[in-house]
Write a structure and sequence with these properties.
With 403 residues, the chain is α/β, with parallel strands linked by helices. It folds into 2 domains: 8-185, Flavin prenyltransferase-like (Rossmann fold, 3-Layer(aba) Sandwich); 193-401, CoaB-like (Rossmann fold). 33% of the residues lie in helices and 24% in strands. It contains 13 helices and 22 strands. The protein has helices spanning 22-31, 50-57, 78-84, 95-103, 109-116, 129-133, 135-146, 172-185, 218-229, 258-269, 311-318, 334-344, 386-401; strands at residues 8-13, 35-40, 61-62, 87-93, 121-125, 150-151, 155-158, 164-168, 193-198, 203-206, 209-211, 233-238, 250-254, 274-277, 284-286, 305-307, 323-330, 349-354, 366-367, 369-373, 378-380, 384-385. Strand 17, helix 12 (334-344) and strand 18 form a beta-alpha-beta unit. The longest helix is centred in the last third of the chain and has 16 residues, at 386-401. The chain binds cytidine-5'-triphosphate (CTP). The site of cytidine-5'-triphosphate has 17 residues, from helix 11 and strand 17.
Length: 403
Amino acid sequence: MSVLSGKNIVLGVTAGIAAYKTTYLVRLFVKAGAEVKVVMTPSAKDFVTPLTLSTLSKNEVHSSFTNEEDDNAQWNNHVELALWADLFVIAPATANTLSKMAHGASDNLLLAVYLSAKCPVYYAPAMDLDMYQHPTTKATFEKLASFGNIQIPATHGELASGLVGQGRMAEPEEIVSFIEDEIAKKLPLRGKKVVITAGPTYEAIDPVRFIGNHSSGKMGYAIAEEAASLGAEVILVSGPSHVVLKNTRVTKISVTSAKEMYEAVHQHFNTCDVAVLSAAVADYRPATIASEKIKKKTGALTLQLEKTEDILASIGKIKTKQFLVGFALETQNELENAKSKLEKKNLDLIVLNSLKDKGAGFKGDTNKVTFVTKDNKVIPFSVKPKTEVAKDILHYILQQIHA
Ligand code: CTP
């Protein structure tokens, strides 16, 4: 999944021949999962039609302060548009518009949006090579950089004039990956490796039966998605679960039993920075697995069970720099039990679910948790979607590892 997924992008199109390429740019932003609204300078409409860009962006395209062609003419609110944007991308950015941006001119809607924007502003210059090399243009670039605007450098190639040199707008694919890299660079978990366990484990009785539990894996998958969207390298060790991962940057290792989960976690634990063990691991497994299907007999069937590996406790013993988070699912003496697990398993944080709380637990889409921290703080949360609980957990981890 792209870091642009879910982002609101205002694309400002100015009057350069490269404007025709913005049709592809809009497509790529939309494909990356972004919402796009286009503003154009009036002359940009000579190069690409608002109809094309509104069809591709599925949003109205504006180029003036009022909708003058409409009988019910209405004011196009530049402030609202600017504040809606998570990113403002101006492509192509002509020498004229860039110079106006550098000097605070506001004689069209695009410039008014620029002056009202609080979000990061990216611009992709497009001009002839002599214009690109001109000292005034260089001074404009410097001034724009001093305002915090980010330039997507023009490339070398054949220009509309027939001259060959620098000044060609970066290709739409290059613009998208430039912006993605810039955003990724600033993500708070960039460079960190996070190991997460999720789902149930199945402990085989015979070739067709197992001991398992009702865990859906939703909580662990939500933590994995959130950690990846914050820039972490994520290893998700998952027991059998039907949850579908959206973020393609999560590496999923599918396991079935507690033993397999133990091995996968240990393979990655030494090199990780954070481990969040949210899986509902079976505490016991059949001491022997029958090689053939166990046939029905008249009397009762007794299964001899043995303990599984306690994965969390085992990594608590060997942990060095890692921030270690466990879960506790309790039905009585919740806080006391959670605190004792935190100490016994050498954790930095334990996330307590009480089955007494409505909206908490295994299967649903919501959870109600209480954090018990290493320094003995108890932080209760309200019932919320598991995706929001995942944000709370990662927010706490970020605070601690950057403290
Ligand atoms: N856990 C684990 N390996 C196990 C059992 C549990 O890694 N074999 C982890 C779970 O992922 C969870 C935490 O330990 O993060 C707590 O699990 P829980 O079952 O609530 O506690 P237990 O320590 O198993 O104790 P009890 O079942 O007695 O409450």
